[in-house]
């Protein structure tokens, strides 16, 4: 055969081999795609992608018509703020940021100053909640562990009962501060281990947890008695608060007053009278000079009124309540309550466990600051190794890094949003909510169900016309108003939104201007159609 014939044959064979190879590869890829559609598994192209990978999603188109409508609502609110404050607040010194996304799609549908970092107020709780669910999972728990150096002998713990901090707020939003059932269950568990008496002290070990104290950028000290400023730490009870429950009696006589949890160790000054049915309810509560004070007048015929107020030291309160409840459940404690880091225990006798997902309704529907801060500390302890504000901030950043929504300018110093030092962009919040609702179905459900609906929690008197269509988290500190969540649009889409307003502090604007604007924006979103 001639040389050129052999070259031609060789080249044709090579091309044929290459073509066959390409066809085999194409069939293999198509087979893998078909197999994945049918739910198959196995090796090669059928293997599932890593759980951390996000499948490509369609890009949502900007909705210029909807954005124009929302800009109109923002403009009307800014004009009203100017009129209400005689020009002190307006477009030149106020930022209104709006970000809207479509659930299941990438990108913003509406973006109005959405990249500017602003104070989020209680919308910060959304970041805390998302990071907690990411780090702990929907079944994760906070554990307060009770240890001794050895098992009890003849019913007696020979030495101290060491309690390891777990960051649990020990809070039940339905029980008006009564923690008795929690400690009754603990006492039963200790008795099952043979504990009838503790010959030593109750030792509270806060190792790895910050001392309770106010955060940077908090309100003035004059407000520290309020529930909103309750402190967080390694131990807490009733989320760092006492609850006064007042019931009216016969007119002119004393009202019935209960303080929960019982046995905080603080002396009490109680003096509430029952006035005429036409009288104004005027009851003052708080801790003054180291004692609980509940004084005032309740109208006759009022069956029950309650108020929560911050305890000065949630750790010590936990210890005192624990001791009282153990003795109330027939476990004798010979010693005192004291605090010691790195205490020696070793043998676990019992534990109190609380699912973190069960606390999120208190965080997002009720906007309970102390519960949010407890979770923030617990998050820091779990992820960053320290139950501190620094640890919590590092943990949020690490837990949410794969979501890719925390941008330059983000800062988180607490879990609640009470601090004025926090900063985040509206598009980061909307992206976070969208990503959380697109995550693991059980975690997504826990996140969604923690948000308030119209008629409940902080939305009790707002947007009744959107009942069943809207879930959201409110936010307010003086100079900041926020609302973020989801709303079902008229065309069936779920729109995820975040509205942040930062303005010169002026009393009344949140109620008179910003809340009505937020409500109007949500109603526009509910009317949206593609």
Topology (elements, then pairings):
Blueprint: H1 3-37, H2 64-84, E1 95-102, E2 108-112, E3 117-118, H3 124-136, E4 141-148, E5 156-157, E6 161-164, H4 180-192, E7 197-198, E8 202-205, E9 241-247, E10 256-260, E11 268-275, E12 282-288, E13 291-299, E14 305-310, H5 314-328, E15 332-333, E16 337-339, E17 347-355, H6 360-364, H7 369-383, H8 389-399, E18 424-425, H9 426-437, H10 441-450, E19 470-477, E20 480-488, E21 494-502, H11 509-527
Parallel strand pairs: 5-7, 6-8, 7-15, 8-16, 11-13
Antiparallel strand pairs: 1-2, 1-21, 3-18, 4-6, 4-17, 9-10, 9-14, 12-13, 19-20, 20-21
Helix pairs in contact: 2-11, 3-7, 3-8, 7-8
């Amino acid at each position: 055969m001639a040389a050129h014939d052999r070259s031609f044959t060789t080249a044709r064979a090579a091309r044929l081999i290459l073509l066959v190879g390409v066809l085999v590869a194409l069939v293999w890829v198509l087979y893998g795609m078909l197999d994945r559609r049918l739910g198959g598994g196995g090796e090669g192209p059928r293997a599932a992608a890593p759980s951390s990978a996000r499948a490509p999603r369609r890009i949502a188109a900007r909705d210029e018509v909807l954005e124009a409508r929302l800009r109109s609502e923002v403009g009307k609110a800014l004009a009203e703020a100017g009129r209400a404050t005689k020009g002190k607040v307006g477009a030149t010194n106020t930022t209104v940021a709006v970000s809207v996304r479509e659930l299941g799609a990438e990108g913003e549908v509406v973006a109005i100053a959405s990249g500017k970092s602003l104070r989020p107020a209680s919308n910060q709780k959304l970041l805390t909640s998302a990071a907690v669910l990411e780090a702990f999972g929907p079944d994760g728990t906070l554990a307060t562990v009770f240890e001794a150096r050895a098992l009890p002998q003849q019913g007696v713990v020979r030495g101290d009962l060491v309690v390891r901090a777990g960051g649990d707020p020990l809070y039940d939003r339905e029980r008006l501060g009564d923690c008795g059932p929690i400690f009754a269950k603990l006492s039963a568990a200790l008795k099952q281990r043979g504990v009838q008496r503790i010959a030593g002290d109750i030792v509270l070990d806060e190792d790895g947890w910050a001392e309770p104290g106010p955060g940077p950028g908090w309100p003035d000290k004059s407000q520290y008695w309020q529930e909103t400023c309750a402190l967080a730490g390694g131990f807490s009870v009733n989320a760092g608060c006492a609850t006064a429950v007042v019931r009216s009696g016969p007119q002119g006589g004393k009202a019935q007053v209960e303080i929960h949890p019982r046995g905080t160790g603080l002396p009490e000054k109680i003096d509430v009278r029952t006035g005429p049915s036409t009288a104004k309810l005027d009851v003052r509560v708080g801790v003054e000079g180291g004692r609980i004070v509940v004084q005032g007048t309740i109208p006759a015929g009022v069956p029950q009124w309650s108020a929560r107020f911050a305890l000065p030291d949630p750790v010590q309160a936990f210890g005192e309540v624990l001791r009282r409840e153990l003795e109330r459940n027939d476990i004798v404690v010979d010693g005192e309550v004291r605090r010691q880091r790195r205490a020696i225990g070793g043998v676990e006798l019992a534990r109190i466990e609380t699912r973190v997902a069960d606390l999120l309704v208190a965080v997002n529907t009720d906007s309970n600051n102390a519960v949010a801060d407890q979770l923030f500390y617990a998050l820091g302890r779990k992820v960053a190794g320290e139950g501190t504000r620094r640890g919590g901030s590092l943990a949020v950043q690490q837990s949410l890094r794969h979501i890719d929504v925390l941008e330059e300018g983000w800062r988180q110093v607490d879990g609640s949003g009470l601090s004025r030092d926090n900063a985040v962009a509206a598009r980061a919040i909307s992206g976070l909510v969208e990503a959380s609702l697109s995550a693991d179905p059980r975690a997504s459900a826990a996140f969604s169900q923690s948000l308030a609906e119209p008629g409940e929690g902080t939305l009790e008197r707002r947007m009744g016309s959107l009942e069943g269509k809207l879930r959201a988290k409110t936010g307010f500190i003086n100079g900041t108003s926020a609302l973020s969540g989801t709303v079902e649009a008229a065309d069936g889409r779920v729109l995820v939104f975040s509205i942040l307003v930062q303005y010169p502090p002026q009393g009344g604007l949140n109620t008179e201007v910003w809340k009505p604007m937020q409500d109007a924006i949500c109603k526009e979103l509910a009317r949206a159609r593609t």
